[in-house]
Protein 1
Amino acid sequence: MTLSREAIVDHLKNMVGPERVITDEQVLKDNSHDRYKKFETIFGVYTTPIPAAVVKLADTKQVSDVLKFLNQNKINAVARTGGTATEGGLETIVENSVVLDGSQMNQILKIDPTNMLATAQCGVNLGELEDRLREQGYTAGHSPQSKPLAHMGGLVATRSIGQFSTLYGAIEDMVIGLEAVFPNGEITRIKNVPRRSCGPDIRHVIIGNEGALCYITEVTVKIYKYYPENNQFLAWALDNMKTGFEVLREVMVAGYRPSVARLYDAEDGAQHSFDQFAADKCVLLYMAEGNQRIAGATAEGIAEIVGKYDECRPIDSKIIENWFNHLNWGPEKIIEERELIRKNLHIGFTTEVSGNWDCINTIYENVLERIRAEFPHIDDLTMLGGHSSHSYQTGTNLYFVYDYDVVDCKPEEEINKYHVPLNALVVEETLKAGGSMVHHHGIGKYRTPWTKAEHGSAYYILKGLKDQFDPNGIMNTGTIYPVEQ
Amino acid sequence: MKIAVCFKTIADYGRLSETDWAWDERHFVDTSFVRRIFNCFDESALEMALKLAGTSLNASDPAELTALTVDDRQSDLFLKHLTAVGYHHVARIQCNKKIDLRFNSLTVSDLISTYIKQEEHQLVFLGRQGGAGDNRQTGFLVAERLGWPCIREVTAVVRDESSGCLKVTSRIDGATLVQTVKLPMVLIAGHCIDSPYLRVPTLKQKLKAKNKPVTILSNTRLGIDDDTLINNGKTLIDLQRPQANRPCIFLEGKNPREQAKRLYAEHLKQVFTL
């Protein structure tokens, strides 16, 4: 028998205490969405079903008890910590969903300089962890723009990546061990060892599961020595993205690992005021860091490679350093953005994809060409461009950035008029060229139409995980896995 | 109705660290590595004028907008931006680079008022203060030189259709004033809640604006020679860092729980509502 909304709330209160079960209407509304629906929610419109309750979880035992109850009663559970998701993964699309808020599980459990590990509960803010590490001369090496707001659980759940990924890797390269709770209440711990050969690496069942398989309660990540005094910035202006991709590739293939390796097209660069220093040009920039010898050799090696390209003209590194130091999004930027959207009916989004070196420029060119040719509201666009910000031995990512005026439509119509079709054009062209449709935001709920196309025959494995760990389908319905009609 | 909006671009001072605030022998702080932005009060004035022009499209004398700045070529990008968002004319007064205009509202107002007279504008918008000088004088001095009335702390302007006048809203000492005024007039923009940000041009508008010219005038062409600008009776002797106390609010409450509740409701709630 399906439990009523009131019965769900009563049961939850009995399990965790009434003070931990929030039913305030505005809190429920705020927890029904993430940044994907930022436009309509800024105007006070909430089109997603409002959850029955938000449960402020205290510990792993409570997570287990609550999940077991929800599973037994087939109630949809949406895991949430910092709330900075961008792809609809936090939307409560099923009536009477329960939001499992882990933000109060916020203890840094251990910093272990001998083994170079830090263990934190899911609700620990990454910025706070980083501050604690830096006090002791270490860094987590993970620095997404959302660092001041994002929590460890959410970062691991979405396979997040940071601005220094080219040196430190993405979150999956940093996570050593985990604790997670499955919908049947099973608590699992994966131990912290440097490497092992004991069957498949089961960390990857949990990392990136977006709350669709289990609830992450604790994370252990690597830490690194922090040498900010050795950071070196390098930047060049160049005429076209194709050359930029070639340089990015050559640097990576030569074995250099700058912490930052970015390539902006002229349009996207102008958003960052690069046009004030390199009008109508693409901008290629690097940051070399690490101990003095490594940072020096990295900067020198990159400069030597770029120097072979006549097209590249140096930019004052101080400009890039100053820009980079102001890139993160804290609460004040969120407020400013909301204000700008409200006043000017103007909004921007991104779609991030990846591809190997042999197709990345094709993806870049084809996506932009197709949007210009096919998007019916192109006249409302104020910006269309992109950049690469995470490079690998084998390829790189692409961040397509599009801003637009919201014209002649209600707040709740904005998504389908603009964001969804633009997102679709990016994803389709990327898959067509052989790339991946999502680089680091997660699939969420809006790229699920292409989950099967993304994985092809390997979807069998992905589907198997859902069948095994969440047979009742209560874990964040509609995320990663498309809702079957 | 010919409208001129005077603006300046400034370095984004929020991006300078404490150690960056070092000056040379001419008392100039190096900001060459920091992006430039519209001075915020000027940005409001620019947007207010666009809104006014938008409401007067069908009027018998539609608004003709000019954006004017006294600066060197670093402002050209901003002037292009203004062309794209709807300014009919954009002009820049280029002075000899040796002339320090930062604390010299008198000179700047001479240049602006001379231009306004030459071009026969009837309405001048300016932001109330801005840039390194923060002088808060230029608007008043422009009005004085033109012999026009002036309203400060303006937050909105619309046409009064019946009289052919303007209805100007300003906010002074916590009171809101709405005045119906005849042109000519100088309006000084203050904290403007309705038009804080300049609109963003579409791709199409940007493309169209790309090849539109920027009018560049020298001070000599306006009939003001370099000596007059340099010998203005002002000498900058020294710069000093002001006391940098941050404003704070004391939250009253019976107990920490009540204080925390107030902190959330009054200050944090909007931050957490993503």
Protein 2
Amino acid sequence: MILVVAEHRGGTLNRATWEAVAAAQLLAERMGGAPIRIAVLGAAGGVPQELAAAGVGDVLVLADPALEPYTPDGYVIALAGAIASVSPRFVALSHTYQTRDFVPALAARLNRPLVTDVTAVSEGAGGLTFTRPMFQGKLAAEVRPVGDAPCLVTFQIGAFRADQVRKGTTPSPVTDVPVTIDRAAIRQTPDAPFQEAKQAVDLSQAARIVAVGRGIKSKEHLPVAESLATALGAELAASRPICDSGWLPMERQIGSSGQTVAPKLYVALGISGAIQHLVGMKGSRTIVAINKDADAPIFEVADYGIVGDLFELVPALVAELEKK
Amino acid sequence: MSRETLEVDVLIVGGGPAGLSAALRLVQLQKERGGEPLSIAVLEKARDAGAHMLSGAVLDPSTLRDLIPDFREKGAPLAADVRRDRVYFFTERSNLRFPVIPSPLRNHGNYIISLNKFVGWLAAQIDGQGVDLFSGFAGQHVLTEGARVVGVRTGDRGIDRQGVQKPAFEPGVDILAKVTIFCDGVRGNLTKELLRRFQLGRGRQPEQFAIGLKELWEVPPDRLEPGTVVHSMGYPLRHDEFGGGFIYALPEGQLSVGFVAGLNYRDPLFDPHMAFNRFKRHPFVRRLLDGGQMIRYGAKALPEGGWNTIPRPYMDGALIAGDAGGFLNSMRLKGIHLAMRTGMLAAESAFEAVRSGDTSAAALARYQEKIDRSAVKTELYPVRNVHQAFDLGLFTGLAFAGLTLMTRGRWVEDLHGHAGHERMKTLTWYYGAPAYANASASAGASADRSAGKPGSLAPSNATEVDRRLTFDKLTNVHYSGAAHDEDQPPHLLVHTEVCSSICGPEYGHPCTRFCPAHVYDIVQEPGGPRLQINASNCVHCKTCDIMDPYGVITWVPPEGGGGPQYNGM
């Protein structure tokens, strides 16, 4: 059995959980069809029902007042108890900031192996093998866990696709699993979460990004790109010259001196594609480039390239998108 | 604001070949002479020793042998013994090999090295010897008391773009020293301050510089036998432009490929980086690089003026050594051994002065005597006029160099050189009035385009950029590893009002061309052209500080630790 640990904040499911479910399904298949269960901790609102609706496996709700707010100690105690009672072979988690916060302590508490940031699962000669990056991605290590079950595995965000979760035909049952946590055992007293800057945007979490470059020519033309972003439900980002000129805030800069992103869709408008920009976005699943210059290096990484004037093409695209 | 102060006996500014040789020599003198140990500190702006070091490089081991006689046993990183010298004269499509190698270019007994690795090794030699090496700290200001240099203030850390203190703000530290040895390299920002405040260049000729651009390549094996040293002159430079190319073969299929262009060219539309691209497109070079891969890029200015341009290198409480003082032999294309030698001599002078309790200019003048008695003068004095002769053109320069070799530099009267940036001509002078009218109309609009079109401000020597053999500056910069904290004040101080009002019409914004790292960008805006400074691209070559025709660009050190990362260069 594989236990997936869902992540949510205040009743909103982190979409990376679906990637962990997809990875767990792949793992289950390699194990010859092991069942999957999903653990949800704390007051999760509609999250258990949302997960149950997909019909991928039983949803276990671990609720205790001591799990609010999130603390690493609370999660470790609750999960250690649940794991002891359901005895999974693997515990699957998405490699999020929260997971990174508590999972090492959980592995230590259980005295079980932990494989982090896994990008692929394969069947090797000696059994199941996980691939994970080392030295900032310069090397890929193949790891085979040994010892007693369970083994804890965290999956890299973006390595498995949420839309490849095979959903069941009937909703799965939701079961309450009683947990008792002694508040005195929780050593952390967290403050309320806050955002460092107003309107801070985390582009790395965006599913779609429309990025503008120097081809936009002036700040007054930004609404052209904004209209496409709105039509696509995308975040707006930019290459360095745009942010340097102060047309968009620095936090929306993509590239070696800005953010590294890997959205499902990256639309590059008037971006020539200097190597400094490419290193920040070349991991995107689908790259669409619009540029006047047919020799622009952006076309070397683009899946779909249009040589043309973005001021003609973007309104046409927006009009088409709005028809639907 | 209260600043920390630190007091030492000898402060060395700059952890390059000169500074580290000085530090090591001080350690040696202390061991030889005994007595109360001197406190020694070295400031280095790079995060790791050697990270900002760039040179060809062929090392004349004469100084190394004196400083570290057992350098082989100690594992000095000498990549290859020079086995073969080649000198070529290039025309656009062919080359002519010199049947006899002129003696200054004979490298038998020398070594091809990576200066980055070599300096890293030198730093390891002073490790554990009681020297404080502060890497990641740049000297920002010279501290003086009257006419006496008393130390250096390091740069503040943690200031944002607008000049406001960030939460992690740390004020710079005042390091006070009995003697400060300035080894801050070519056009060092502190040495520049000293030259101005103490008029150290009075009675000397103006300093002269060149810019060197270099790439490290990995090529299929057997292209060039390791230990081969190739120099070229002629194409892609015109006869009134000084410079040439070099290719040094390292082991394991690595080639050090570079190009040096004098920063005294007349054509305001000349672009040294494009000259380097053209050099690589020459059939001879292309054959060597074809199918290979560029793995590193860098650029650095070099002092070419020679003996007559070296400023007075001593004053009350301070000495100047290495490239900062212009100790480089441009005829032999070598300066590392002279940097090391002057570093050693400065250390000896500083040691004696501190021990005698007299660190005045009169006491430190011993340094000049030591230089005059050393191999530095023996080597530089005879060729003191050669670089200046190249001002008159390649062939005059070559003829003069030949004469110098025969006569050992005995001349009645010295040739007088000019500061390179003063030689740059205006667009009108160089291209005539019509081109100038054209040029100003399209100012900047196509300045970032590689294709040269008549009347545009694109480089006059523009050539094709294929991103395999030849590169645009931005791509090259990526391979220099240059990185700076983005949220800090620009470290290039420019009187920008000059840019659009005078410099555009007169010279066509030459900063966009002579900068090898795309730091300067002219952006066309409704209100007219605006200079955009991409300071975080800067590879600390100092060319802008040297070559800007109005002298309105001042390079100051960015927050310590920022800059290029010249691994293996």
